[in-house]
Amino acid sequence: MKSRIIDKLYNRVNERGVVCVGLDTSLDYIPSFIKEGKSNKDAIVEFNRAIIDATFDVAACFKVQIAYYEALGIEGLEAYRDTLAYLREKGEIIIADIKRGDIAATATMYAKAHFEGDFEADFITLSPYMGMDSIEPYIPYIEGGDKGIFSLVRTSNKGAKDIEYIKTPAGRNVYDIVGEKVLNMGKEYMGECGYTPMGGVIGCTHIEEGAKIRETLKEMFFLIPGYGAQGGKAEDVAMYLNNGNGGVVNSSRGILLAYKNNGASEKDFVKCAREEVIRMRDEIRSACNR
Length: 290
Fold this sequence. Notes:
The structure is a single chain. The protein is about 45% helix and about 15% strand. It has helices spanning about 5-15, 30-35, 40-55, 65-70, 75-90, 105-115, 140-145, 160-165, 175-185, 210-215, 235-240, 255, 260, 270-290, and strands at about 20, 60-65, 95-100, 125, 150-155, 195-200, 220-225, 245-250. An 8-stranded parallel barrel has the order 1-2-3-4-5-6-7-8, surrounded by 5 helices. The longest helix has 20 residues, at about 270-290. Pathway: Pyrimidine metabolism; UMP biosynthesis via de novo pathway; UMP from orotate: step 2/2. Keywords: Decarboxylase, Lyase, Pyrimidine biosynthesis. It comes from Clostridium sardiniense (Clostridium absonum).
């Protein structure tokens, strides 16, 4: 079956731009007037809802990093659940950044946990470095047309060099082989937009091979971290897009902490977050049109 969810994401990028708002919400990001007199859960949910309301019409999607919520125990997971529920209520596209990477029955349970029920998302992130059988249990959900994945391929951290850049005897990088395998697994479920719902996490901080990766994985939709706080620039990001589409660019701290970065009042956190999304969107659009 053709993928509806990748077409939906592709169209959102056309309509709203490439920005993916990262809700990697730490308690110390939240203005004190929100936290005052509230539980951690209620403060996080109120902050997240305000960010969502301020940015949804200028962002393609939202990425929620589960670790920030798991770190707070049950209360944090309730905030995670309620944040996802609010995004679904508003019709927004959710990427759950969970980076699971296990096999067989365990992976089947991860798929059920994050494609159904309280923690349901549209896309989830996976690590394929145990092998392609760590991805296979998610395929039944992808076959339905309404779910997708972003698999780690070539990441933005310095440690990517430790494994992802290892050369095979044929002279190819490990990440080249991983990307090719994930792409080929997804081709059966291609969307009308020409991309598969089995996307790749491709960091923008290693720009020297950017053009080659985009050409080699031309039918793979990218989740692109590394912009802003990690050093990636708009012109770096543009290398990984196709005419301004074919990927979404995540920013978390840059958006959530825009009010602090700008020296603004806590009361202006919503205004500053929206302005940062628009600034980022327009900067990347401009770089793509050069």
